[in-house]
Amino acid sequence: MRSFTTSHGIFYNGDCIKGAALIPDNTVDLIITDPPYGIEGDKLHRHYNRDESFVTDGYVEIPAEEYESFTRDWILQAERILRPGGSLYIVSGYTHLRHILNALYETSLEEVNHIIWRYNFGVFTSLKYVSSHYHILFYAKPGGKRTFNTECRFSLSEKDENGGSLNYQDREDVWIINREYKPGKVKNKNELPTALLSKIIQYSSNEGDLVCDLFLGGFSTAKTAIGLLRRATGFEISPVMYDAKIDEMMAVVPGFLLDTAQTPKEPSRKRTRKAWNPEETEQLRKRYNELNQTSLSQKEVNQQLQEEFDRGYWSIEKALKQTGIKPGR
Ligand SMILES: C[S@@+](CC[C@H](N)C(=O)[O-])C[C@H]1O[C@@H](n2cnc3c(N)ncnc32)[C@H](O)[C@@H]1O
Asked: Which architecture does CATH list for 2-250?
């Protein structure tokens, strides 16, 4: 199979189902992929009303009647190449979602989250609602430690102007991320936004990890992964799309996204893990009762106790239970 190699990856021009044989079992840390939609993808851009000359030709679509077996075959390969604990993110529209879910159920892969990605430029309709979201299925291979960098983008102490946790908001399972509009630039018509890919790569991998995309398209996953100092690999069956990206990929500077990626503005505050002694537990009990006489909400009381005793919520709850108090949330 034809391939090219950069300092951070090897990329193949061919069918990912056959080509996956080139990747050994249990070696990939993270797979992010956006399989063909099975809905005449080569006409998709007309809905978006873009100037066709700016859209890379050569997208290879899967006939709807083959979609089910095609999906089963590539998902089995994804399961095989992922390391135990490795993560898989599949971006899918609604049309063939059931085939993807059925294929996943037949593997050992375990569901972690079902994310809704809401985007702009929904397909225009007049007699029904406009569809403006995709599904992102986040699964993991059992048997190893899954990477999830909880504070890679916002530390647990960062707040918005209303006191809400930015970390919590960033980890909610509805993501509002606009598609990129690059006027005048040659691009793949279904290219995933860098902001979306960065988010996944930051949470679910570490520098030096291997990120694979079985359906490279415009190579956006690979570019973002290398931009964040990960290694990358993958497949694109279309020679036209593959050839169109070789020069660009050879010129990608590893780490080019590190300066602009979302990172915590405040350092993460690691709570002490030390055990409670009886005096501290008694102090906690008194303080809990005191704070509960104030106008603070239960949530604010809990936060205050976490600060004062430098412990996480669960540790505080456990210690209070020992004194006979069952704190609310
Ligand atoms: C939805 S696009 C991927 C877009 C990509 N995520 C991006 O951001 O540019 C799906 C891609 O899979 C390619 N493809 C279709 N069948 C394939 C196969 N069996 N193996 C590898 N690539 C395939 C299509 O040509 C198309 O480029």
From this structure: 3-Layer(aba) Sandwich (3.40)
